[in-house]
Each structure stands twice: as structure tokens, then as C-alpha cells.
Amino acid sequence: MTTPFSRIGAKKRAAGVPGDRLPPGQYIPRGWPVLHYGPLPKVDLATWDFKVFGATADGAERRWDWGQVGELPRTEVAADFHCVTKFSVLDNTWTGIPTRAFTELAPPAPDVTHVMVWAEYGYSANMTLADFTSELALFVTHKDGEPISPEHGWPLRLVVPHLYAWKGPKWVRGFEYLREDRRGFWEERGYHNRADPWQEQRYSYQESPGDGPEL
Ligand SMILES: Nc1nc2c(c(=O)[nH]1)N[C@H]1C(S)=C(S)[C@@H](COP(=O)(O)O)O[C@H]1N2
Ligand SMILES: [Mo]
Description:
Layout: H1 10-15, E1 49-54, E2 62-65, H2 66-70, E3 75-82, E4 88-98, H3 99-105, E5 114-119, E6 124-128, H4 129-132, E7 138-143, E8 146-147, E9 157-159, E10 172-178
Parallel strand pairs: 1-10
Antiparallel strand pairs: 1-2, 3-4, 4-7, 5-6, 5-10, 7-8, 7-9
Molybdenum atom binds next to loops.
């Protein structure tokens, strides 16, 4: 489901942005568009949990309730946000829990290569373990000092700044360690398995052999 937004003035806004800042084909919209598939989930923090499962080092699943997530360390990351539909929101300050906090508390088995990140209603996004544990990847609670709104993923969403934004599930509920790659929600529906905005990896038809599991 998309929310319409205005492209008027987008060129002008991009004019002052150095060329090395905006990935190819991207423009700067007004504000921060809301974009997702399906309805807005109803979230009840009393029953909410965050799960790490799949190929963990000890085979056990780990679970955090909302209170326990609140005790995890937070960091701030300054980063741009690039959507495959071509808008980029520059200079965001994200506050959240580094993905590495979870991979340290619930480490993967040695042969884990990928993760599947899971959100409400079964939305999912796959990526390599290396992309997921990038230093800038956060489970975000705040943007520019304000709690993220329900439309943008409250109470928790993933942000992986070096990949297109669909790799960052809103209303995230956990992740699964994988011993081999598997396609997530959009990766099965025509989006590129890797999603590097600087290489314009938008669609699955652009994939080279080895970029992802066969469709
Ligand atoms: N749970 C969930 N997360 C999602 C999506 C979705 O449909 N469901 N869409 C993705 C896509 S395609 C984009 S571009 C970004 C948009 O984030 P925003 O609405 O905060 O701008 O969210 C991503 N995360
Ligand atoms: Mo997107």
C-alpha cells in the first residue's frame, strides 16, 4: 500500500546535495513518505516479544519482552535512507539497538550465512549476516530524537542504511538465522535479493548468478 506524496520541488531540493550523496536514480521528497504493504498492525506491548531463532549457536530460541528490550544498549547513527521507489531521506539520526547486540547475546551457529528478519503479519526481509551485522544497522526506536510513529514502524523497526529500505522491516518481531539464503517478502515478488542502492540493485531481473536463490 502506498501513500501518495508530492514530487513537486524534488529537483530543487536535490540541487544542493553533492552528487556523491544521492545514489543513482534517487530524489529527495518532501518529508518522510510512508510506504508499506497491508494494514497498520495493532501492537500491544504487554504481549509483544522479540525472538531470535533458527540456527543459533546452541540451537535454542531467545526471547525478549518489551521491558527487556528497553534494557539493551542503544546507540545513535547518522545515515541516509534510500527507498527503491526512488525517494531518499537524508541526514537522519536514528536511535536504536545495534543488531550486533542481539547477535552477541544470541550468537549464530558457525555456518550461518544469512538472516531472515520477521515483522508483524509475516513481512520478512533476507540479507547476508554481514549486511545484517553492519556497524550502522540498528533496530530503531527513535528518529531525530522522537519515537518513530506507528506508520513508520513503532515500537521497533530495522534500519540497514547501506541497503534499500525494504530490507528494514517496520513492526519488527525478530530474526531467524539461516544456513542458506532464502528470499523474503519482496525478494520473492520482484525485488533484488541484495538491494545495494549504489549499484541500483532494484529488481530481481537485474540479478547476476550468485546474487540469490533461484526464483
Ligand atoms: N513490516 C513492513 N515493513 C516494511 C514494509 C512493509 O510492507 N511491511 N515496506 C518496506 C519498504 S518497501 C520501504 S520503502 C520502507 C518504507 O519505510 P517508511 O514507510 O518508514 O518510509 O519500509 C519497509 N519496511
Ligand atoms: Mo520500498
